[in-house]
Structures are given as C-alpha cells and as structure tokens.
Amino acid sequence: MINVFPWLRHLPGDMFGAKRYIQCHHDLDAMFSDPFIMQKTKEYEEGGDALDNFISAYVHERRRKEQNGETTSMDGGHLRRLLGNLFIAGSETTATTMLWFMLYMLHYPHIQEKIFAELEEKVGYNRRPTMQDKPRLPYLNAVIMETQRRASIAPFSLSRLCTADVTLQGYVIPRGTRVVTNLDSVLLDEVTWGDPFNFRPERFLDQYGGLLHPEEFVPFSMGRRVCLGESLAKMELFLFLAALVQRFRLLPSESGQPPPQRAQFGVTCPPEPFKLKFIERVDKS
C-alpha cells in the first residue's frame, strides 16, 4: 500500500506497518549487509582483482565505470539494497512455496504417495535425487508447478514504472505511471485452467505422462523483468522437495485433521502457521 501511495508514510503512527518494515531493513543492513560490504571491499582493495564474490565484483565494476568517466547509479546504497533483495527475495519466496507444498501434501496424501512411488522407481532409496534426475521425475515436477500455480505466493509480483506513454486495449497509460500486475488473473483463470481452485497436478502432464509448460504458467512473471532467481528457485524446490518426500511421509499433527488452507496476505502470501509430523520412511531394500 505504501509503495502505491507513498504519501501514506507521512501519516502519524504506523497504520500499515511500513515504518516497522523499513526499520527491519535498516537493522538488516546494519547487522548483516554493512559488515560484509566493509569486509569484502577491504579484501578487494588489498587483493586487487579477486572477484570471487558478488560484493567484490560490484565494487570492481563501479570503480571501472568511475575511472572511465561513465555515468552510473552504482553506489553503496544500491549495493546494500541488492544484498537485501538477494537474501529476502531469494529465500523467503522459495521457503513459502515449500510450506504450501507440505500443506498440500497433508490434504492430498494420495498425491504424496504417487510422488514417492515415482522416486522409488526412478531414483531408489540409497542416494539423494540430483538435478540429473529432474527430467525423469515428471510427476514431481508437475506437483511443484501446481503448488506454484495454486498457491500464487506473489499475486501482485512487484510494481513497475511505465517508462513511456503506452496504449493498451484502448487505455492510455502515461509515462511515469506505477503499474501493479495481477498474476492471480492468469494463474487462477477459469478459462485457461478449467478448475483453477482444485489442486490437480495432472494438468501439467500430457497423455503420455510428459511434462507440459503452458505459457499461462507465470509464477515468476514474464518478459524482460522476469524473476532473476527463477532457475535457482526451480533447482532448490526440486532438490529439497524430492529429498523430503523420498525420506519422510508428511502427516497432519492430528490424525485425519489437516490444517486449513488459508493464506496470510502480505508482500508474499504464506500459509497460516501449521503443525505436521515427519515420519521417516523405512528402506525396503
């Protein structure tokens, strides 16, 4: 709300929790980002071209541009914010998707067991799944995709700024307008998916069991501003969730009473806190 209507930040009190949120960012910078920036900048200055980390590479590029007289917005503030984005956007969203996956497995135990059967057949029990196994596990991939579609953890993605006057379906969007997308309008579209509110992984499989990639599947947004962490997130989700189902059976903390599928609305939409049991699977070999 504050991003869309910046003047709200000047109201007394903290009605929208934005001031507390901003203070948390400042605390994160002071306790985490700033010490690392100081350490890696010092190491870069002492070691010359040791570009073995993001901070050193950023400092190197900034100084190269400054020495060449190039105009740049690269500075300490941008570096600090980039680090925050990498850790917050790069971890919280993936963790939230994992939580929804676990919650759905509590509600659909037959789907969970079907994933395990695929893992047992294609991977076995004596080793952990690797990225080389990903093409051989279409059903698991379909369940992960259905989790991302149905949970829609970032329904408004990130706001954008229109850089030029644009006419879209008869509507004029002036330059400088802040635009907020609505990914729910795609991920939960009835015309596209038929039964968008049902959890049905088979919608991502063809008649031969191969994985489908519908163009309407856009949990990472699309176009030039697509999520930079898409590949990393896909890898993390596959490796973690494959190993999780291979090793454990997920059950409600109270038998026969799975937690409600309710979201907490915010920057992202995680499920309400819930409890579950992890029952270690027995190696049948």
UniProtKB/TrEMBL annotation:
Any Gene Ontology CC annotation: cytoplasm
Transmembrane in keyword set: yes
GO biological process: organic acid metabolic process; xenobiotic metabolic process
Requisite cofactors: heme
Annotated binding of heme, by residue: 227
Record Gene3D superfamilies: Cytochrome P450
GO molecular-function terms, A-Z: heme binding; iron ion binding; oxidoreductase activity, acting on paired donors, with incorporation or reduction of molecular oxygen, reduced flavin or flavoprotein as one donor, and incorporation of one atom of oxygen
Keywords, comma-separated and alphabetical: Heme, Iron, Membrane, Metal-binding, Monooxygenase, Oxidoreductase, Transmembrane, Transmembrane helix
Chain ranges passing through the membrane: 82-106
Classification via InterPro entries: Cyt_P450 (IPR001128), Cyt_P450_CS (IPR017972), Cyt_P450_E_grp-I (IPR002401), Cyt_P450_sf (IPR036396), Cytochrome_P450_fam2 (IPR050182)
Family from the record: Belongs to the cytochrome P450 family.
Protein name per the record: Cytochrome P450 2U1
